Amino acid sequence: xxxxxxxxxxxxxxxxxxxxxxxxxxxxxxxxxxxxxxxxxxxxxxxxxxxxxxxxxxxxxxxxxxxxxxxxxxxxxxxxxxxxxxxxxxxxxxxxxxxxxxxxxxxxxxxxxxxxxxxxxxxxxxxxxxxxxxx
Length: 135
Fold this sequence. Notes:
This is SnoaL-like domain-containing protein. Helix content is 22%, strand content 41%.
């Protein structure tokens, strides 16, 4: 089944909503972005993957003032997978309270359920060197 333009817009909205929800501190609304049993993989940051939307929200609360003040997403590329899910690859920019910024790549697997598209798995990879270290 071909991914419709409506699906593409809905998926981009879900990916963008993550930043709006986090930056406004409305972590109880993360079920609008993630499936209930979502995995949030932070192993690139030396942490264990978070399992479930409640664990994702709890981790955000625990991070408290160390959270970025701005989560921004850009360069979204969507690929249909044969099982009806969608792979999304996007760039993330985090702006900290002190004005410093960081860049990541989000690798997401999204599923369409009764409430629409949701992220079932997210892997976050930090960018620490220019050109991915290949220069």
